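job 3f2a | input accepted
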Amino acid sequence: VDSRLRGNDNLIFMRRSIRVYLFCLFSFALIIGQAALVRAQSSEVAVLEFDGPVMPIMHTYFERGLAEAVRTEADAVLIILDTPGGALDTTIQIVQLFRASEIPIVVYIGPRGAQAASAGSVITAAAHASGMAPETVIGAASPINSDGSDINQTAYRKAVEDLKATMRGLTERRGPQAVALAEAMIEEARAVSGPEALEAGFIDAIAATPEDLLAQLDGRTILINDEERVLNTA
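job 3f2a | predicted structure (234 res):
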């Protein structure tokens, strides 16, 4: 009788052990599954930072940064920008670089007190998404000579109309208010604050930090070469 009892005890213990083992196995599988989900949802964003006038070195820096982002298969490129403006020919080169990119480009005007003046506003408009830190400024993009003097009237009108057409092409996806503001930046040298730019739809967000901007933009649908893409920037 004692032997049979001991056998039953062992059987009960074995069944309990199997249940415990199966529970642990299930828990382990669940943890692995959650870890895989986290990896699937994570993202890698390449960060470039430029503080200074728009000149050929800016184009070179952005070009090399985008190439590295492609090499590392980054989900997006974040450009932290603070510029008073600069050369028109370099600006157009940067616009072409941005618009040809297969990787989403996000421009963040920051930190507080920064600006995207003159050519900087055109560069910002060329990005696939954009945001501004509080207390920043964008605009005042009327063309002038490199020495700061006014251009003669004929050349000025040509430059203005060319830039207005460029800005219309970059902002029409954002709606008529954004287009109107973009044209006013060129025609009237208008400059606006972050909230004003956001209200017009010229930018996508006001963010205190780059991380805040990336969190706000996560899941947003953008257009890259006329194809819809969902940003993965959390």
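job 3f2a | The radius of gyration is 27 Å.
job 3f2a | closed
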